[in-house]
Design goal:
alpha/beta; TATA-Binding Protein; 8-stranded mixed β-sheet; 6-stranded antiparallel β-sheet; 10 helices; 31% helix; binds zinc ion
């Protein structure tokens, strides 16, 4: 009797197929690239999928996020939940672990034994975090970014190979644009094809995967490829000779301007007890309910959530938001 992976096994070989069927893979982000990668890898037979994303499904996602339906958007299901339901329909014997939230250093430390990660983020800061964890804990990952009609993808390997920090120094990527920028689905599908092809080769144990960045404009058909080896920087803080993995440093909150909203999100890797927030002891207006603490310093509005996340509205830029955060949301001792 033919098994369900017969056609794939003819290409990869039985030992590679067996390795894939034992693999645990983190898909970081469950938007367009994340749903495409998750579906391909679950169909390919991976043992366990770990999926993390903080958003819920919206109607505007359906044009390119292949796992979701109108019913998911109607119910505003968390993406990881909607994705898991669809993926179990596709393959009932896969193991899926879902997390609704942001990627954090502690999440990555907890999952450091994964065989591979797929980057399906829309921002550089999250990629740096994934990158530093991958270099520190020694797991491979596959970078991917899409904007407009252009896609880019590259495997980032552990152990002395150039990393994402080296790459972003050299290549201004389409990921500069935020998630409100336009994108066509074929650019997602091309990028995901390159990412998941690399993933299957790495998981299958192929030893000749090389760090090459592939680029394509799916409308013109123009392609580029760049060997990343020459980008390796001796002084890189993640893959260089004396790494300190900056994105993994404790107490370094992640800071990110949200697209088109004049709002900066600050995410420390810890919870914030409202009772100890400095701003409450200062002469500025504040309000609090069971979910959020709001502070109104210097013409801005800061919203503090129980999990530690802070939104700074009307902040001119990220560094000013971080200053306000340290001054008003820092903890009283
Ligand atoms: Zn590097």
């Amino acid at each position: 009797m033919m098994n369900r992976y017969n056609r794939q096994e003819q290409v990869l070989g039985s030992s590679a197929q067996k390795r894939i069927e034992e693999a645990a893979v983190l898909v970081a982000g469950a938007g367009a690239l994340g749903s495409a990668a998750a579906e391909t890898l679950v169909r390919a037979g991976i043992r366990k999928l770990i999926l993390i994303d903080r958003d819920h499904v919206e109607l505007s996602n359906l044009q390119r996020q292949q796992l979701y339906t109108e019913a998911d958007a109607e119910a505003a299901l968390p993406k990881v939940e909607a994705a898991a339901r669809r993926l179990y329909d596709i393959r009932s014997d896969v193991e899926i672990e879902t997390t609704v939230g942001e990627l954090t250093p502690s999440f990555l430390k907890e999952h450091r034994d994964i065989d591979l990660a797929v980057d399906a983020f829309d921002n550089r800061e999250a990629r740096r975090l994934l990158n530093d964890a991958a270099q520190k804990y020694g797991f491979p990952w596959v970078y991917g970014a899409v904007s407009g009609t252009i896609g880019m993808a590259a495997p980032i390997l552990a152990g002395g190979q150039p990393c994402y920090r080296c790459l972003e120094q050299a290549v201004p990527g389409p990921e500069e644009s935020c998630d409100t920028a336009g994108v066509v689905s074929p650019a997602v599908q091309w990028t995901s094809a390159i990412q998941t092809a690399a993933a299957l080769r790495i998981l299958g144990g192929s030893e000749d995967v090389t760090p090459v960045l592939q680029w394509m404009d799916v409308f013109t058909g123009r392609t580029k490829a760049m060997d990343l080896k020459r980008l390796a920087a001796e002084d890189c803080p993640a893959c260089g000779s004396r790494p300190d993995y900056p994105a993994l440093q404790e107490n370094m909150p992640s800071v990110r301007m949200l697209c088109g909203r004049r709002t900066v999100q600050i995410q420390p890797d810890r919870r914030i007890p409202f009772s100890r927030v400095k701003g409450k002891g200062m002469d500025i207006p504040w309000r609090e309910n069971e979910f959020v603490l709001q502070l109104y310093p210097e013409g801005c509005r800061m919203v503090v959530f129980r999990d530690g996340r802070v939104l700074v509205h009307e902040a001119p830029d990220e560094s000013e938001a971080l200053r306000l955060y340290e001054q008003y949301v820092g903890l009283m001792v």
